[in-house]
Amino acid sequence: MNPVHTLWFLDLIDIFLVAVLFYRLLILVKGTRSAQMYVGLLVIVVVALAARELDLIAIRWIAESLKTVWLIAFVILFQPELRHALAQFGRTRYFSSFLRGDNYGVLGEVVRAVEALARDRHGALIVMERHVGLRNFVETGTRLDAKVSAQLLITLFSPGSPLHDGALILREETALAASCILPLSANPRTALALGTRHRAALGLSEESDAAIVVASEETGSISVAYRGVLKQRLNEGELRSELSRIFRIRPQEEEEAPAAQPPAESVEKAAG
Protein backbone atom coordinates (compact mmCIF):
# COMPACT_ATOMS: atom_id res chain seq x y z
CA MET A 1 0.00 0.00 0.00
CA ASN A 2 1.15 3.53 -0.79
CA PRO A 3 2.66 5.19 2.36
CA VAL A 4 0.55 8.31 1.74
CA HIS A 5 -2.62 6.22 1.60
CA THR A 6 -1.56 4.38 4.75
CA LEU A 7 -1.08 7.63 6.68
CA TRP A 8 -4.43 8.92 5.42
CA PHE A 9 -6.15 5.73 6.54
CA LEU A 10 -4.50 5.89 9.99
CA ASP A 11 -5.59 9.53 10.37
CA LEU A 12 -9.17 8.51 9.65
CA ILE A 13 -8.98 5.77 12.27
CA ASP A 14 -7.51 8.25 14.75
CA ILE A 15 -10.29 10.79 14.16
CA PHE A 16 -12.97 8.10 14.35
CA LEU A 17 -11.67 6.75 17.68
CA VAL A 18 -11.46 10.24 19.19
CA ALA A 19 -15.02 10.99 18.02
CA VAL A 20 -16.31 7.74 19.51
CA LEU A 21 -14.51 8.48 22.78
CA PHE A 22 -16.01 11.96 23.09
CA TYR A 23 -19.45 10.67 22.12
CA ARG A 24 -19.33 7.92 24.75
CA LEU A 25 -18.18 10.43 27.36
CA LEU A 26 -21.09 12.73 26.48
CA ILE A 27 -23.55 9.84 26.77
CA LEU A 28 -21.95 8.81 30.06
CA VAL A 29 -22.30 12.21 31.76
CA LYS A 30 -25.65 13.16 30.21
CA GLY A 31 -28.14 14.02 32.93
CA THR A 32 -25.51 14.00 35.71
CA ARG A 33 -23.77 16.77 37.62
CA SER A 34 -20.57 15.92 35.77
CA ALA A 35 -22.08 17.17 32.50
CA GLN A 36 -21.37 20.79 33.44
CA MET A 37 -17.81 19.93 34.48
CA TYR A 38 -17.34 18.12 31.18
CA VAL A 39 -18.47 21.21 29.25
CA GLY A 40 -16.16 23.40 31.34
CA LEU A 41 -13.25 21.07 30.60
CA LEU A 42 -13.97 21.27 26.87
CA VAL A 43 -14.03 25.09 27.10
CA ILE A 44 -10.58 25.07 28.74
CA VAL A 45 -9.24 22.81 25.97
CA VAL A 46 -10.69 25.07 23.25
CA VAL A 47 -9.23 28.19 24.93
CA ALA A 48 -5.82 26.50 25.17
CA LEU A 49 -5.88 25.60 21.48
CA ALA A 50 -6.98 29.11 20.54
CA ALA A 51 -4.21 30.61 22.68
CA ARG A 52 -1.64 28.48 20.88
CA GLU A 53 -2.93 29.46 17.43
CA LEU A 54 -3.23 33.19 18.30
CA ASP A 55 0.03 33.22 20.24
CA LEU A 56 -1.56 34.54 23.46
CA ILE A 57 1.50 34.18 25.68
CA ALA A 58 -0.09 34.51 29.13
CA ILE A 59 -3.02 32.17 28.49
CA ARG A 60 -0.76 29.67 26.72
CA TRP A 61 1.62 29.69 29.72
CA ILE A 62 -1.27 29.04 32.12
CA ALA A 63 -2.63 26.23 29.92
CA GLU A 64 0.80 24.59 29.62
CA SER A 65 1.34 24.89 33.37
CA LEU A 66 -1.94 23.10 34.04
CA LYS A 67 -1.20 20.40 31.47
CA THR A 68 0.61 18.22 34.00
CA VAL A 69 -2.37 18.10 36.38
CA TRP A 70 -5.12 17.71 33.77
CA LEU A 71 -5.04 13.92 33.82
CA ILE A 72 -5.22 13.78 37.62
CA ALA A 73 -8.02 16.35 37.66
CA PHE A 74 -9.92 14.41 35.00
CA VAL A 75 -9.72 11.17 37.02
CA ILE A 76 -10.82 12.92 40.23
CA LEU A 77 -13.70 14.84 38.67
CA PHE A 78 -15.09 11.93 36.67
CA GLN A 79 -14.32 9.09 39.08
CA PRO A 80 -17.95 7.86 39.39
CA GLU A 81 -18.52 7.97 35.63
CA LEU A 82 -15.24 6.18 34.87
CA ARG A 83 -16.06 3.48 37.41
CA HIS A 84 -19.52 3.06 35.86
CA ALA A 85 -18.05 2.89 32.34
CA LEU A 86 -15.52 0.22 33.32
CA ALA A 87 -18.26 -1.80 35.03
CA GLN A 88 -20.41 -1.62 31.90
CA PHE A 89 -17.45 -2.66 29.76
CA GLY A 90 -16.87 -5.68 31.95
CA ARG A 91 -20.56 -6.64 31.77
CA THR A 92 -20.65 -6.89 27.99
CA ARG A 93 -21.53 -10.32 26.67
CA TYR A 94 -18.07 -11.02 25.29
CA PHE A 95 -16.24 -10.39 28.55
CA SER A 96 -18.93 -11.64 30.92
CA SER A 97 -18.43 -15.16 29.52
CA PHE A 98 -14.89 -15.05 30.97
CA LEU A 99 -15.95 -13.51 34.28
CA ARG A 100 -18.78 -15.79 35.31
CA GLY A 101 -18.29 -17.47 38.64
CA ASP A 102 -20.35 -19.62 40.96
CA ASN A 103 -21.96 -16.62 42.64
CA TYR A 104 -24.64 -15.24 40.31
CA GLY A 105 -25.99 -12.03 41.82
CA VAL A 106 -28.95 -11.71 39.45
CA LEU A 107 -29.90 -15.37 39.89
CA GLY A 108 -29.94 -14.85 43.63
CA GLU A 109 -32.26 -11.85 43.29
CA VAL A 110 -34.59 -13.82 41.03
CA VAL A 111 -34.65 -16.81 43.39
CA ARG A 112 -35.45 -14.63 46.41
CA ALA A 113 -38.18 -12.78 44.57
CA VAL A 114 -39.82 -15.91 43.16
CA GLU A 115 -39.74 -17.61 46.56
CA ALA A 116 -41.51 -14.64 48.15
CA LEU A 117 -44.07 -14.39 45.34
CA ALA A 118 -44.85 -18.10 45.41
CA ARG A 119 -45.20 -18.05 49.20
CA ASP A 120 -47.77 -15.23 48.94
CA ARG A 121 -49.52 -16.94 46.00
CA HIS A 122 -48.71 -14.09 43.61
CA GLY A 123 -48.30 -15.22 40.01
CA ALA A 124 -45.09 -14.34 38.19
CA LEU A 125 -43.54 -14.95 34.78
CA ILE A 126 -39.85 -14.00 34.54
CA VAL A 127 -37.83 -14.46 31.35
CA MET A 128 -34.03 -14.51 31.58
CA GLU A 129 -32.49 -13.87 28.18
CA ARG A 130 -29.40 -15.84 27.18
CA HIS A 131 -27.81 -15.90 23.70
CA VAL A 132 -30.95 -15.50 21.55
CA GLY A 133 -32.23 -11.91 21.56
CA LEU A 134 -35.83 -11.27 22.63
CA ARG A 135 -36.31 -7.79 21.18
CA ASN A 136 -39.61 -8.68 19.47
CA PHE A 137 -41.12 -9.68 22.80
CA VAL A 138 -39.59 -6.74 24.68
CA GLU A 139 -41.38 -4.35 22.32
CA THR A 140 -44.78 -5.78 23.31
CA GLY A 141 -44.39 -4.62 26.93
CA THR A 142 -43.62 -1.52 28.97
CA ARG A 143 -39.97 -0.52 28.85
CA LEU A 144 -38.21 -0.35 32.24
CA ASP A 145 -34.40 -0.52 31.82
CA ALA A 146 -34.04 -0.92 35.60
CA LYS A 147 -31.44 -2.74 37.68
CA VAL A 148 -32.66 -6.17 38.74
CA SER A 149 -33.43 -6.59 42.44
CA ALA A 150 -35.71 -8.87 44.43
CA GLN A 151 -37.66 -5.85 45.68
CA LEU A 152 -38.31 -4.65 42.12
CA LEU A 153 -39.54 -8.06 40.97
CA ILE A 154 -41.82 -8.49 43.97
CA THR A 155 -43.29 -5.02 43.44
CA LEU A 156 -43.90 -5.58 39.73
CA PHE A 157 -45.81 -8.84 40.29
CA SER A 158 -47.83 -7.68 43.28
CA PRO A 159 -51.57 -7.83 42.49
CA GLY A 160 -51.95 -4.04 42.74
CA SER A 161 -49.24 -3.37 40.17
CA PRO A 162 -50.48 -2.35 36.69
CA LEU A 163 -47.62 -4.40 35.19
CA HIS A 164 -48.23 -7.70 37.02
CA ASP A 165 -49.90 -9.32 34.00
CA GLY A 166 -47.60 -10.65 31.30
CA ALA A 167 -43.90 -11.44 31.43
CA LEU A 168 -40.90 -9.58 32.78
CA ILE A 169 -37.84 -9.89 30.52
CA LEU A 170 -34.35 -9.67 32.03
CA ARG A 171 -31.06 -9.23 30.20
CA GLU A 172 -28.03 -9.80 32.43
CA GLU A 173 -28.46 -7.28 35.30
CA THR A 174 -31.22 -5.23 33.65
CA ALA A 175 -34.99 -5.59 33.73
CA LEU A 176 -35.77 -4.59 30.15
CA ALA A 177 -39.57 -4.58 30.03
CA ALA A 178 -42.62 -5.75 31.96
CA SER A 179 -46.10 -6.89 30.93
CA CYS A 180 -44.68 -8.50 27.77
CA ILE A 181 -46.73 -10.89 25.64
CA LEU A 182 -45.24 -14.34 25.01
CA PRO A 183 -46.31 -17.01 22.50
CA LEU A 184 -48.27 -19.96 23.91
CA SER A 185 -46.87 -23.45 23.43
CA ALA A 186 -47.69 -25.03 20.09
CA ASN A 187 -47.18 -28.49 21.55
CA PRO A 188 -50.51 -30.40 21.29
CA ARG A 189 -49.37 -32.80 24.03
CA THR A 190 -48.93 -30.05 26.60
CA ALA A 191 -50.66 -30.94 29.86
CA LEU A 192 -54.21 -29.56 29.95
CA ALA A 193 -53.81 -28.66 33.61
CA LEU A 194 -51.22 -25.99 32.78
CA GLY A 195 -52.32 -22.37 33.10
CA THR A 196 -51.62 -19.53 30.70
CA ARG A 197 -48.34 -18.53 32.38
CA HIS A 198 -46.94 -22.06 32.15
CA ARG A 199 -48.00 -22.48 28.52
CA ALA A 200 -46.47 -19.09 27.67
CA ALA A 201 -43.23 -20.12 29.41
CA LEU A 202 -43.14 -23.35 27.41
CA GLY A 203 -43.97 -21.48 24.21
CA LEU A 204 -41.05 -19.08 24.52
CA SER A 205 -38.70 -21.88 25.58
CA GLU A 206 -39.57 -23.69 22.34
CA GLU A 207 -38.56 -20.63 20.28
CA SER A 208 -35.46 -19.43 22.18
CA ASP A 209 -32.77 -20.46 24.64
CA ALA A 210 -34.15 -18.25 27.43
CA ALA A 211 -34.78 -19.59 30.93
CA ILE A 212 -38.32 -18.80 32.07
CA VAL A 213 -39.33 -18.94 35.73
CA VAL A 214 -43.00 -19.27 36.69
CA ALA A 215 -44.64 -18.79 40.09
CA SER A 216 -48.18 -20.17 40.26
CA GLU A 217 -50.82 -18.11 42.05
CA GLU A 218 -53.12 -21.16 42.33
CA THR A 219 -50.71 -23.63 43.94
CA GLY A 220 -47.73 -21.48 44.99
CA SER A 221 -45.40 -23.83 43.11
CA ILE A 222 -42.32 -22.78 41.13
CA SER A 223 -41.43 -24.00 37.64
CA VAL A 224 -38.65 -23.43 35.12
CA ALA A 225 -39.07 -23.78 31.36
CA TYR A 226 -36.00 -24.30 29.19
CA ARG A 227 -35.59 -25.71 25.69
CA GLY A 228 -39.19 -26.94 25.55
CA VAL A 229 -39.08 -28.71 28.92
CA LEU A 230 -40.99 -27.51 31.99
CA LYS A 231 -39.69 -28.59 35.39
CA GLN A 232 -42.30 -28.10 38.10
CA ARG A 233 -42.56 -27.98 41.89
CA LEU A 234 -39.01 -26.78 42.49
CA ASN A 235 -37.90 -25.65 45.93
CA GLU A 236 -35.43 -22.80 46.49
CA GLY A 237 -32.33 -24.99 46.25
CA GLU A 238 -33.57 -26.81 43.14
CA LEU A 239 -34.50 -23.51 41.48
CA ARG A 240 -31.06 -22.05 42.14
CA SER A 241 -29.33 -25.21 40.92
CA GLU A 242 -31.42 -25.39 37.74
CA LEU A 243 -30.79 -21.74 36.82
CA SER A 244 -27.07 -22.08 37.57
CA ARG A 245 -26.91 -25.17 35.38
CA ILE A 246 -28.65 -23.41 32.50
CA PHE A 247 -26.43 -20.33 32.62
CA ARG A 248 -23.26 -22.45 32.74
CA ILE A 249 -24.11 -24.01 29.36
CA ARG A 250 -21.78 -22.70 26.67
CA PRO A 251 -22.98 -21.70 23.18
CA GLN A 252 -21.17 -24.63 21.51
CA GLU A 253 -22.80 -27.06 23.95
CA GLU A 254 -26.13 -25.40 23.16
CA GLU A 255 -25.70 -26.13 19.45
CA GLU A 256 -24.82 -29.77 20.10
CA ALA A 257 -27.81 -30.32 22.41
CA PRO A 258 -31.27 -31.02 20.95
CA ALA A 259 -33.54 -27.99 20.72
CA ALA A 260 -36.27 -29.59 22.84
CA GLN A 261 -37.40 -32.87 24.31
CA PRO A 262 -40.07 -34.98 22.60
CA PRO A 263 -43.64 -33.73 23.11
CA ALA A 264 -44.56 -36.51 25.55
CA GLU A 265 -41.77 -35.36 27.90
CA SER A 266 -42.42 -31.63 27.71
CA VAL A 267 -43.53 -31.46 31.34
CA GLU A 268 -41.32 -32.88 34.07
CA LYS A 269 -41.92 -32.89 37.81
CA ALA A 270 -39.10 -32.50 40.28
CA ALA A 271 -38.57 -35.38 42.61
CA GLY A 272 -39.75 -34.86 46.19
From TrEMBL:
Gene3D superfamilies: DNA integrity scanning protein, DisA, N-terminal domain. Signal peptide: none annotated. Residues 79-236 form the DAC domain. Residues 251-272 are annotated as: Disordered. One of its GO terms (biological process) is cAMP biosynthetic process. It is an enzyme of class 2 (transferase). Its EC number is 2.7.7.85. SUPFAM superfamilies: YojJ-like. One of its GO terms (molecular function) is ATP binding. It catalyses: 2 ATP = 3',3'-c-di-AMP + 2 diphosphate. Keywords: ATP-binding, Cell membrane, Membrane, Nucleotide-binding, Nucleotidyltransferase, Transferase, Transmembrane, Transmembrane helix. InterPro entries: C-di-AMP_synthase (IPR014046), CdaA (IPR034701), CdaA_N (IPR045585), DisA (IPR050338), DNA_integrity_DisA_N_sf (IPR036888), DNA_integrity_scan_DisA_N (IPR003390). It comes from the Bacteria. The chain crosses the membrane at residues 6-26, 38-63. Probably a homodimer. Catalyzes the condensation of 2 ATP molecules into cyclic di-AMP (c-di-AMP), a second messenger used to regulate differing processes in different bacteria. Belongs to the adenylate cyclase family. DacA/CdaA subfamily. PANTHER family: DIADENYLATE CYCLASE. HAMAP family: DacA (MF_01499). This is Diadenylate cyclase. It comes from Eiseniibacteriota bacterium.
